[in-house]
Amino acid sequence: MVMPRLIPCLDVADGRVVKGVRFQGLRDAGDPVERAVRYAEDGADELCLLDVSATVEGRGAQRETVAAVRAEIGIPLLVGGGVRPLDAARALLGAGADKVAVDTAAIARPALVAELAETLGAQCAIVAIDAARRDPEDPAAGFEVVTHGGRTRTGIDAVQWAAECAGLGAGEILATSWDRDGTGEGYDLQLVTELSRASALPVIASGGAKREDDMARALGAGASAVLAATIFHDGERSVADVKRTLRALGIDVRVPALATPSETRTQPPAEAPIQP
Question: Which residues does residue 144 pair with via DSSP β-bridges, in sequence order?
Fold first, then answer.
């Protein structure tokens, strides 16, 4: 059985890590290389590097940042943001990425997913789905795909799109809840569950993590991995801290033997964590 993964995310714009709420109001959160090294040394299973301004600005992801991060870390690196032609994906792999995520470009031309899978291998072809609730007051209304930082609502059903991507050969789904992103309200468990049931593809849950029990719930809802940013960037928890708590909850995550509790924690772990 594949062990659940913990993936810190670096949203990057103009060579700096940024963080906001629902993809808006971005604030500086540090140097991407420094952050990457810290998280890798602390036991991250994988690192996600997303160029959050590439699609809006109509350019490709920054290869220089990818190369600089790869030069300093040895864990798997997932890169996305502004990836359009197949050659762009190849360039990112050449710069050091292990996986490439496509979102807006895949919606515009779904055949891109198949091309990536056939040419680079399914393990490299990740589809990022930013999903928003159609009606926050009606869970039965479902989710639709949004693009351009949530500025554009496509009308595409997110769960059906995930199933279609599986048929095209994608290797994994990176699912971000637009409604929960940066809010600290926890992952959207309905979204995680529905996407996990839509296909056999592994689902990376993203958007809303604040505490370890948020991650435990997402893994219990069907996610194969949990991605988080604010909880780590703001020093609330270290990767090692989170993994120890998840292990205490009965979730079999890798806990590096040399990892030590964070010295930068600003608040104690949540009491009486809730079982997923």
Answer: 132, 157
DSSP state at residue 201: S
Burial group, residue 84, by CB count within 10 angstroms (0-12, 13-18, 19+): buried
Burial environment of residue 114 by CB neighbours within 10 A (0 to 12, 13 to 18, 19 or more): middle
Are the C-beta atoms of 165 and 173 separated by less than 8 Å? yes
Domain spanning 5-248 has what CATH number?
3.20.20.70
Q: pLDDT tens across 95-108, in order?
A: 999 999 999 999 99
- Report yes or no: 259 and 240 within 8 Å, Cβ to Cβ: yes
Non-local CB neighbours of 148 within 8 Å, separated by 6+ positions: 55, 56, 104
Nearest to residue 131, comparing CAs of 110, 158, 106? 158
- Give φ, ψ of 151 to 5 degrees: -75, -25
Closest CA to 174 of 78, 45, 44: 78
Identified catalytic residue from 130, 213, 214, 241: 130
- The H or E element spanning position 274 is none
Q: In this structure, what DSSP letter does residue 220 have? A: H
**CB of 275 closer than 8 Å to CB of 249:** yes
Amino acid in position 24: Q
Half-sphere exposure of 182 (CA within 13 A, CB side): 15
Q: Which amino acid is at 53?
A: S
Catalytic residue flag (residue 130): yes
Pairing mode of beta strands 47-51, 5-13: parallel
pLDDT tens-digit series, residues 153-210: 999 999 999 999 999 999 999 999 999 988 889 999 999 999 999 999 999 999 999 8
